[in-house]
Amino acid sequence: VDDADNTQAHEAQREARWLAALRPMAATLPESGIMTVINYGHDKAGVVPFWAGEGDVPTPAFIAEAAIEALRQGHTFYTYQRGIPPLRQAVAAYIHRHFLADVDPERVIITGSGMQAIMQTVQALVGPGDEVVVVSPVWPNIFAAIHMQEAVARPVPLQCAQDAWRLDLDRLFDACGSRTRALFLNTPGNPTGWIMEPEDMLRVRDFARARGLWIIVDEVYGQFVYDRPRVTSFLEVMEPDEQLIVVNTFSKNWSMTGWRVGWVVIPHSRSLGQVYENLVQYNTSGVPAFLQYGCVTALTDGDAYLKSLVEQCRQGRALVCERLATVPRVRLVWPQGAFYLFFQVAGEPDSLTLAKRLVDEAQVGLAPGSAFGTGGEGFLRLCFAASSATLRTGVERLVAALA
Amino acid sequence: VDDADNTQAHEAQREARWLAALRPMAATLPESGIMTVINYGHDKAGVVPFWAGEGDVPTPAFIAEAAIEALRQGHTFYTYQRGIPPLRQAVAAYIHRHFLADVDPERVIITGSGMQAIMQTVQALVGPGDEVVVVSPVWPNIFAAIHMQEAVARPVPLQCAQDAWRLDLDRLFDACGSRTRALFLNTPGNPTGWIMEPEDMLRVRDFARARGLWIIVDEVYGQFVYDRPRVTSFLEVMEPDEQLIVVNTFSKNWSMTGWRVGWVVIPHSRSLGQVYENLVQYNTSGVPAFLQYGCVTALTDGDAYLKSLVEQCRQGRALVCERLATVPRVRLVWPQGAFYLFFQVAGEPDSLTLAKRLVDEAQVGLAPGSAFGTGGEGFLRLCFAASSATLRTGVERLVAALA
């Protein structure tokens, strides 16, 4: 036993030395709390995975085949750092078709994932000591990207009211101080499904204008909305010469999570375009051209697929919410948008412990609310983008485990 | 004329305001000097492109088809952040096969390009005010990645001797001060072809050991060597528990520049592995799994292709060096490794001006030496990884233009 203890102590010392040899920012960069549970359950057979933000069907063939054709045609060289021109045009056309916004393709930059779109944006805007006010709970990677710039995230929590998540705008504005450079909003929001109303968007816009702040909006779930015909994009309420950055991804709309392609719409400025080109160059040196041709097809031929996916999520939302609402210990609000249910279980304040227990005892993988920052602890996130058979299996297990 | 001047002045003011709204680091991040010329000549018809670090053949079919099969099989979901296990194992096996080094697959992290491998490494190791001593001239993206951490690069220039590029190790060591955290070496080197000799590697290792410095080595061109059977990897002279990071890419060996997949070998440490997993998560959230299956095939079935590519580069080197050596104004040293000729033209001290002129007057695209930092100005970089027909066309144009 002593020997084992000694070995463990030696190991711990050794690992502590490695962390001390790193930059403090990196040594203190937290593991994603979503990944903590995924890594915990990854190799356990039979777990129904609702922990990640993706469904259970692969990318549709018409998109995959477009990439395959481009790959076979030899589009395997270095390419335009800002994205191939037809893809930047297709993004602009997609925005024009779905929102009341006219975006010049020059404002569109293709990035190696929505995550890279966020990373490049915080790299461009905030440095050590700067502050970003972030509406939370939110995808943990937002906080991490800010931390990686040695900047500070100031979370402003949404309130979980009886019927919906709500944001107190005065709290949001009060959180902005002299070091604040940007507001970060994710609407429709992960993990809560919260949607910012147009009148609030105008107030936020006016506040940011008056204070010279950037608005960064993650509109990745802009199509996943259930109780209204559509959402308003910030691109509809702000001009091309205002300090607005909108990030997006191909991942969610077209079941392309594994492709790692996203985009960002920046203000109309030659200098800003060049800065983003530089950031692409020095982060990833571009996105595979043959994948970009697949993305063109997703945008131009993918509206019907997208519509059917949103319809599936609408049914998934109903299935999950109706069934879990029958469990006395469960407290939930039907999400207005995105494809997550963010719910509480009475008597279970520690979401990470509960999420791990549910992996072991219910064979269901959920993300712990604590991963999503201020206001998230005590909740669990369930992704309902899966097919109804998968959802039914997982939800029945949850009902049994939580009853 | 006054109106036009006013419009221009207004535009300039407007752009200056945009740059002022950015983080100073981003506003001062320079454009890659390679991209300056590529962007200058990109749309000019008939230019023979020797400016980028790639050949003129697409990825071989056996690799592309492996990715296509995986894509059709539906490997389109989020995947292992450190890379799929078979790929990490294949990298370890590749290293074992080609170098006298035994690397545990746990030490291998798959990244979204060699560039991302470098970016994640500087993110992990250096922060604001830290210094990295960099052997130059070198790929400009190294300097940019360091700048993006608000750290400082201290270049130590190679000397261009009569027969080879040489590094004065005393100069290298003298450049290391109290803020120095790491040495950055690229051997075989871009753009010079310089190769660090094993005895110098041992001296650098001993110096870094004594000073507690990290050694970051870019071994991307480790297979492209012409006057000796092979090069020694730093993995052969340092132990798994030393502060060594080796970055690499699939781009050069298997004509996969457009794929954006690289890897990094880190020390054997649970904590470091977790830090790199976090950095993957927050930069790109992983590399497409279906591309990784193509990469497995490149590593396991690609030795013969690699050998033929190196052979082609050997012939390309001879073709280019022999022909350009006949031009009285040209001064060159045959490169020992990599696939670039880095040469001078008498009476042409301004390499960017000359590179642009050669685009216009010779229809040949070269990279300006000024892009590669201290010691690079006055040189031009020519990539000879192309087929001999392309090389012949371009070189004859150069001979005519520089005669």
Description of the structure:
2 copies of one chain form a homodimer. Chain A has 403 residues and is of the alpha/beta class. Helices cover 45% and strands 15% of the residues of chain A. Chain A has 15 helices and 15 strands. Chain A has helices at residues 2-21, 24-27, 33-41, 61-72, 85-98, 114-125, 140-148, 169-174, 198-211, 234-237, 270-283, 289-301, 303-324, 351-362, 388-402, and strands at 48-49, 108-111, 131-136, 152-157, 159-160, 165-166, 180-186, 214-218, 244-249, 262-265, 330-331, 340-345, 364-365, 367-368, 379-383. Chain A has a 7-stranded mixed sheet with strand order 2-10-9-8-7-3-4, with helices on both faces. In chain A, strand 8, helix 10 and strand 9 form a beta-alpha-beta unit. The relative contact order of chain A is 0.18. The mean pLDDT of chain A is 97. The interface between A and B is large, with 83 and 83 residues.
List the helices and strands and how they pair.
Two copies of one chain form a homodimer.
Chain A: H1 2-21, H2 24-27, H3 33-41, E1 48-49, H4 61-72, H5 85-98, E2 108-111, H6 114-125, E3 131-136, H7 140-148, E4 152-157, E5 159-160, E6 165-166, H8 169-174, E7 180-186, H9 198-211, E8 214-218, H10 234-237, E9 244-249, E10 262-265, H11 270-283, H12 289-301, H13 303-324, E11 330-331, E12 340-345, H14 351-362, E13 364-365, E14 367-368, E15 379-383, H15 388-402
Parallel strand pairs in A: 1-13, 3-4, 3-7, 7-8, 8-9
Antiparallel strand pairs in A: 2-10, 5-6, 9-10, 11-12, 12-15, 14-15
